[in-house]
Automatic annotation (TrEMBL):
Bias-annotated ranges (Acidic residues): 18-33
Skewed-composition ranges (Basic residues): 1-11
Annotated protein name in UniProt: VTT domain-containing protein
One Pfam entry name: VTT_dom
Keywords, in A-Z order: Membrane, Transmembrane, Transmembrane helix
Species of origin: Oryza brachyantha (malo sina)
Domain of life per record: Eukaryota
Region (Disordered) location: 1-34
Residues of the VTT domain: 100-218
TM stretches of this protein: 42-62, 83-103, 109-137, 195-216, 236-256
Length: 268
């Protein structure tokens, strides 16, 4: 009897130790995921600064050639009026649907049209691309795309979170760097989110990043054309971009924990 009690006591102690270790691992995992999300946001900010520096260097070396091209292309767009802007929207959206990286395309809009006009055009283009890719994934290529994420717990967790509050989660995911933009467009088509909340959430969540990268492109144009007062607009604009990156980091951390909690619930 005494031996059995000792054995049971050891087993209970082992179970408690195991549970404590699991809790510690979960806590470390949450910290790691949150840290990774913030790191991703900081990398995005560093990438933005790198692109601005690249534009500045290119503008200094090839100033006359680039300035001539900008003048000619802007004249071409203006010559067609609204149709010229529509053409840019269609080309941008088409390349985005084909999963061409969005950052160079977005910055090119700032380079060509300036901060405000460029942000409006890219916002329309990106939202159109997101809608088209979503519909393709949901109605035309669902089975093929589903094979890429079949059995992925994180995707299933995100799907569950989206099912509970689609607009909120899509908006936060668009703010965070957790899902690549082009890939995300297709993956959302596999989830339970409805089309309208998805489109509105995508548009709203993409705005801060769109503004930042378009403004970086506009700043490059300002350097090329010796118009330092154009583009980022001085310290106030830099402050706006810094606040945007901060909110992006917060959103990334929140969404990471949301997905992790959903994964835990699925395991239980």
């Amino acid at each position: 009897m005494k031996g059995r009690r000792l054995k049971r006591g050891r087993e209970k102690k082992t179970e408690r130790v195991g549970e404590e270790e699991e809790e510690e691992e979960d806590a470390e995992g949450e910290e790691g995921d949150g840290g990774a999300a913030i790191t991703g946001t900081l990398l995005a900010g560093a990438l933005l600064v790198g692109f601005v520096g690249g534009f500045g260097a290119a503008g200094y070396v090839y100033k006359d050639q680039i300035n001539t091209f900008l003048t000619q292309f802007s004249g071409f767009i203006d010559g067609y009026g609204p149709a010229g802007y529509a053409l840019f929207v269609l080309v941008y959206a088409g390349l985005e649907v084909l999963a061409i990286p969005a950052i160079p395309l977005t910055m090119s809009a700032g380079l060509l049209f300036g901060s405000i006009t460029g942000t409006i055009i890219v916002s329309i283009s990106g939202t159109l691309a997101a809608a088209v890719a979503f519909l393709i994934a949901r109605y035309f290529a669902r089975e093929r795309i589903l094979k890429l994420v079949e059995g992925n717990k994180k995707f299933l967790a995100i799907d569950k979170a989206i099912g509970e509050n689609g607009f909120k989660v899509v908006t936060l995911l668009r703010l965070s760097p957790l899902l690549p933009f082009s890939l995300g467009n297709y993956l959302y088509g596999l989830t339970s989110v409805k089309f309208l909340p998805y489109v509105l959430g995508s548009w709203l969540g993409m705005l801060p990043g769109t503004w930042a990268y378009v403004s970086a492109g506009a700043f490059g144009r300002a350097i090329i054309q010796d118009e330092s007062e154009i583009g980022l607009g001085g310290n106030s604009q830099l402050l706006t971009l810094g606040i945007g990156l901060l909110f992006t980091a917060i959103a990334a951390t929140y969404v990471t924990r949301l997905a992790k909690d959903a994964v835990k619930e699925m395991d239980e």
